[in-house]
Each structure stands twice: as structure tokens, then as C-alpha cells.
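Explain my protein.
***
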Amino acid sequence: MNGAPAGDTSGVWLAGTVVRLLEERYGRGRVPSVRVLARHIRDANDGVSISHGHMHNILSGDAANITDRTRAVLARFLGVPPSALVPTAGPPPQQEGLPSVETLAMRFSSLRPEELAAIEKAIHMVKARDGQRDPADRG
């Protein structure tokens, strides 16, 4: 079992799921750094750990596949069954064109607040230059 169904090789689903579970555990905006997470995971698993580099890759969506061992260690720490870290079969992700809102949200979920603020500022700058209104303002 490789942790990702056919078509989900981006790691975005796993990142979003782990971020959501971490926020449930620590509180939104209070998830510790990957180094601290790696220590907490090691402590919760009797010394068995996941490196902080691998945790970074998982949280950023760069870990397309995780091993059964990593899944079990992470699941034990998060208090969920390992199956909770395996996506269910569903429609394949978009292959062409613009990414979906859900995909963007998953990618943005691992960004720091200052990175999100910079993206928001850039969007406002482009809209102001192009004279566009915010799609949320359209009725």
C-alpha cells in the first residue's frame, strides 16, 4: 500500500489531512514547527520517529507516498487509525487547466500567515491593476 490512490500523486490530500488533524490537536494557528513535531512524534511512539525533513515534505504536499511505517507512526501520534491517512477512492484530480479551489486551499494550508498575507497582497495588486472586482463581491 503506497498511501495514495491512482491519480493522487501530489501529496496534497495527505498534507491537508495531516494539517487538519494537527490543528485539531494543537489548535488553529498553534501547530508547532516541524522540529518540535518530530520530537512529539518520537515521544508518542516510544522513540520511533519521523524526521523533521520528512514532516516538512508531508505538510507541504511534497510527500506523494509514505511508507506503512511512517503512516503507522504518524497515525499513532495523531490518535487515528492508519487508514485515516489513506485517501478513499474518488474522482481523479484535475489534470489540466487551473487547479481547483480545494487543491489551492490544501496547498495554502501549510503556508505561514506572513506567506498568506503576501499572496493576498499580490492578488489585490493584480486586481487593482486590472480593475477587477473580488469574485466574492459579485452577486
